[in-house]
Amino acid sequence: MNEKFKQLALEAKMATADFDAGSYYVATPDQMQKLCELIVRECARLADEETSLPYDSYGEKIKQNFGVEQ
Predict the structure, then answer these.
(1) Ranges of each domain in the chain
(2) What is the pTM of this model?
(3) Is the dihedral of CA 16, 18, 24, 30 positive or negative?
(4) Residue 17 and residue 40: Cα distance in Å, rounded?
(5) Which of 53, 12, 63 is nearest to 33 (CA)?
(6) Residue 18 — φ and ψ, nearest 5°?
(7) By the 8 A CB rule, do 35 and 42 touch?
(8) CA quadruple 5, 6, 8, 9: dihedral sign
(9) Would you give the DSSP letter of residue 20?
(10) pLDDT along the chain (70 residues), means of 10
């Protein structure tokens, strides 16, 4: 798994579980929602970095689309 995803999973307070097939992240619905919100915020941040729009940025449009508050 990408290091950024691992960082976001930790930030969402997700746990890991070890099974015979390997390690997996486990999450409650609230933790999963937090992870998704963090991913949307990261995408919005990257979109804003790549644009120079003074207002109504791509990042804001991404957050609005997914219902992520400021």
Answers:
(1) 3-66
(2) 0.74
(3) negative
(4) 25
(5) 12
(6) -100, 125
(7) no
(8) positive
(9) T
(10) 85 91 89 94 84 70 81
